[in-house]
């Protein structure tokens, strides 16, 4: 939040951004809140275009590495495949992604990340940034090869930031 998102956000009158970030961390750290990956991913195509892509594009324009944004995009592409790590079907709840046939691209033995990122309705012009494509391709590859937990550990350890506590 502090490295990839906060520097991009304009000030919002009446909102204490630091308090808001602490509240988010508390909420997502609470083991009593039972959120599901399916709910978080639901209609992700429209969420990415509104909330994540503008951050990625701005960071890339500034010459920065949106390391964790690449992780989120890669994880979503993995979700689009329609199968979890135990090869159990996942019901894709994403009207726009279904309409754009992204699950067909993601379900290939080796998903075509560049083709998915070329979907302008969701990813704007991200396909024009080879370094971002490479990062997302690597995330997707790791997710298939070593699973989500090990991918997350590796991605955190490889973060190009000094302090990534939030």
UniProtKB/TrEMBL annotation:
Taxonomic lineage from the root: Eukaryota, Metazoa, Spiralia, Gnathifera, Rotifera
Domain Mannitol dehydrogenase C-terminal positions: 3-141
Record InterPro entries: 6-PGluconate_DH-like_C_sf (IPR008927), 6PGD_dom2 (IPR013328), Mannitol_DH/Oxidoreductase (IPR050988), Mannitol_DH_C (IPR013118)
Protein name according to UniProt: Mannitol dehydrogenase C-terminal domain-containing protein
Molecular-function GO term, any one: oxidoreductase activity, acting on the CH-OH group of donors, NAD or NADP as acceptor
Pfam families to which the protein is assigned, alphabetical: Mannitol_dh_C (PF08125)
């Amino acid at each position: 939040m502090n490295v990839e998102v906060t520097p991009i956000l304009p000030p919002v009158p009446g909102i204490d951004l630091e308090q808001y970030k602490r509240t988010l961390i508390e909420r997502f750290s609470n083991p009593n809140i039972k959120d599901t990956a399916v709910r978080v991913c639901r209609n992700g195509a429209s969420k990415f275009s509104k909330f994540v892509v503008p951050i990625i594009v701005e960071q890339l324009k500034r010459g920065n590495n949106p390391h964790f944004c690449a992780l989120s995009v890669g994880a979503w592409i993995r979700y689009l495949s329609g199968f979890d790590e135990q090869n159990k079907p996942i019901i894709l709840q994403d009207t726009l992604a279904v309409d754009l046939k992204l699950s067909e691209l993601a379900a290939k033995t080796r998903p075509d990340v560049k083709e998915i990122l070329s979907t302008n309705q969701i990813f704007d012009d991200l396909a024009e940034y080879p370094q971002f494509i490479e990062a997302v391709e690597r995330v997707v590859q790791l997710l298939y090869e070593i699973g989500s937990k090990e991918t997350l550990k590796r991605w955190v350890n490889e973060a190009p930031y000094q302090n990534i506590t939030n």
